[in-house]
Amino acid sequence: MASRRFLPVLLLLFVGSGCAALIYEVVWFQLLQLVIGSSSVSLAVLLGTFMGGLCLGSLTLSRVIPSKHHPLLVYAVLELGIGLIGVIVLFAMPLVGNVYTAWAGSGTWGLVMRGIAAGVCMLPPTMLMGATLPALARWVETTPTGVSWLGFFYAGNTAGAVVGSLLAGFYLLRVFDMPTATYVAATLNTGIALVAFLLAKATPHQMTAATPQSTEPPAGARRRSLPSTTTAVGSSQSEQGTSFVYFAIALSGMTALAAEVIWTRTLSLLFGGSTYTFSLILATFLVGLGIGSSVGAALSRGTVSPRTLLAWCQALLVGAIAWTAFLLTESLPYWPIDPSLSMDPWFNFQLDFARCLWTVLPGAILWGASFPLALSSVVTTDKDPARLVGGLFAANTLGAIVGAIGAGLAVAWYGSQHAQQFLMAVCAISSLVVISSALTTTASGGVLRFAMVVLVIGAGSAALAVRAVHPVPGLLVAYGRYAATRVGTAEYIYVGEGLNSSVAVSRLSNGVLNYHNAGKVQASSEPQDMRLQRMLGHLTTLVPSRARSVLVIGCGAGVTAGAVSVDPMVERVTIAEIEPLVVKTVSTYFSEHNFDVVRNPKVHVQIDDARHFLVTTTEKFDAITSDPLDPWVKGAAMLYTREFFELAKRHLNPGGVVTLFVQLYESNEGAVKSEIGTFFEAFPKGVVFGNTYNGAGYDLVLLGQLEPAPISIDEMEARLRRPEYTPVAMSLHQIGFSSAVDLLSTYAGSAPDLAGWLKDAAINRDRNLRLQYLAGLGLNLRQGDMIYRNILAYRRSPEGVFSGSDEMKSLLRNGILR
């Protein structure tokens, strides 16, 4: 008999275990995205591998580890193994990356290689994680009271996961880096293993065929009995009923993870898709699961029929999904909230957390309660408890894998509205499955009456609830966290949900077209945006002496790529775009502004994460221009690291250049310093060009050369005067530049000039992705002009940056000083 006095201690150990597991998950996902990319396909592979490891671990423990071993010793060894492998993965990642780079390709083979890379890194530790709960199941009595403790352990593990997600997202990775976070998690595992080892010494374990019931009748024991196996008929009915519960809990796992994926996507529009937002949403969902698990564990102690409560949980989820869907589309976007009113991002985080709780908690609580109730429904005294718990956990996890992977596809194919309506139907089916399991084990009038009540109520409420689910409004897709402040200001001529993101096109009353992604305007036909996009494209092709092949990172509205494509010297343009819907959208609505670039025969669109494309291609380019999503968007910082710039340099031909867009709006000085300082580490002679709006700083173009050389004013001017360059000259004229001198007069400084300003810049590296944490604190700020003026304060005379005749250099100096 297990020593009950140590159960609370074990609960605390499970809290620590959950904390460590979430830290690892965050770190491993970031590390592996650097290797296999951050597209929806790559994320599906990562999530499927992580949860697949949990599933395999929970299934195999009881088959590999005999019950004669002390459960606490087994648990201690598992925790030590998780910590050891976690550290090994950190150091083995470069080797995995090198092997993947050497062998990876496109198509099916590329997908297989992504799976292998993720499996090598994540399967060993996640299998150990998945085995921890089944291991301890052998130490707990298979009575209602004992089984409820397993539910509390599950809840404690979830509570620890809440702490881990917040600790990793808001502190460890923001202040330190991925190695430090890994060491913290490994230290937790080691401490847990040590305590478990000491507990094992203090509580001897006696192996039995099955853990005996307590001689003391637990609460509710006279009202509830464990499944009988006294007759062949009873045994058959019990097995069939148990199978129904396993199927139902798999459906519950599927709907839970699918809903989390869909809701996270919509909430990230509302809050801004920063790394902090994703940590908040995950923590909120886990809070609900933890609360629900605790309630379910407590209820399972004395209830007559846990299957009845499980069925009600699944039925009520139909309404919970409708509640969340209604809030996300018809309520929250219209709350009178302007996040720019606060200069302190932490106040916005508190507001977002409260809105997230209000939205997500009902469903998460019901999903959390379902697992301990299902566990109590299938437990018997004549089977290995580790096998029972492991099988149920595996079924739940397997369903979660299907839900997490299928949700993204469902949204892209059918939209989030129909995807959520489908989840509501699945929850109703899950409830009916549990009712069926009760009917196989008893034909009592009470159960039959319950079934009829649930059928009638379920059918009526489902019909009403489905009507509450609406499409994501164009206002939310377009303006995200500022939706309430932009009601009635635009006409939404296109709204679509893709594999990776949602896209919208709006038209203002003055005819301006806006391209929206990630809940904000990413490009437009506004003069200041057209000026930036064409500056980026034309500097990319005019500065190098010969730019035949150009890579454009990020399609956006296609204006940058279009500016590149009209250069007569350019023979091939490759656009690396992660979201297929973007290409379709810009080819339809922005062709007038981007020179119909998508249909240009010399343009090739590569649907892939740009970093993954560069990692896996052998192609080299004469110029690379990068116009990715805002650096505060989760994952975008991977395109601003020192390692990424070195990767780009390796794909340049001699004389090649790299240009980079840096925004000053919706940012802070720390983030801008990080972007520029990191770029200048890779390009020590880099140059900054500024784009202003009404005389105020708006955004920047950084330019770096593989072999630094002065930019020839005379050569650029001569090109623009050639007949074949008329389209380029006209394009520049449309944005206010009548000559090469006008274009180059936007010079805002060089790397040597800005050395003093950049002395405290936080360099963005793969191991820390510091930029996404800095930028995430400034996405609601309006400090662009102040940052630009601080940059200009360090600008000196551009001696050595430009070459040309004395006349041209004099004109340029005067233009710069204007």
CATH fold description of the largest domain = Rossmann fold
**Fraction of residues in H or I helices:** 55-70%
Q: What is the average per-residue confidence, as pLDDT, rounded to a whole number?
A: 89
Total DSSP helices = 25
Radius of gyration: 29 Å
Structure notes:
The chain is elongated and about 95 Å long. A hairpin with a 2-residue loop joins strand 3 (513-517) and strand 4. The protein has 25 helices and 14 strands. It has helices spanning 7-36, 40-64, 71-103, 107-137, 144-175, 178-202, 232-271, 275-302, 306-331, 345-378, 385-441, 445-467, 474-479, 527-542, 559-565, 580-589, 610-616, 642-650, 669-682, 713-721, 726-734, 740-744, 770-775, 784-792, 806-817; strands spanning 490-497, 502-508, 513-517, 520-524, 549-553, 572-577, 603-607, 621-626, 652-663, 687-693, 696-705, 711-712, 747-750, 802-803. Helix 3 runs antiparallel to helix 6 (178-202) and helix 18 packs parallel to helix 19. The strands form 3 sheets. An 8-stranded mixed β-sheet has the order 7-6-5-8-9-11-10-13, sandwiched between helices. Strands 1-2-3-4 form a 4-stranded antiparallel β-sheet. A two-stranded parallel ribbon has the order 12-14. It folds into 4 domains: 1-206, MFS general substrate transporter like domains (Growth Hormone, Chain: A); 242-388 and 408-472; 474-517, no CATH class; 526-817, Rossmann fold. Helices cover 61% and strands 10% of the residues. It is an alpha/beta fold and 818 residues long.
What is the gist of this entry?
The protein has 818 residues and is an alpha/beta fold. The chain contains 25 helices and 14 strands. It folds into 4 domains: 1-206, MFS general substrate transporter like domains (Growth Hormone, Chain: A); 242-388 and 408-472; 474-517, no CATH class; 526-817, Rossmann fold (3-Layer(aba) Sandwich), CATH 3.40.50.
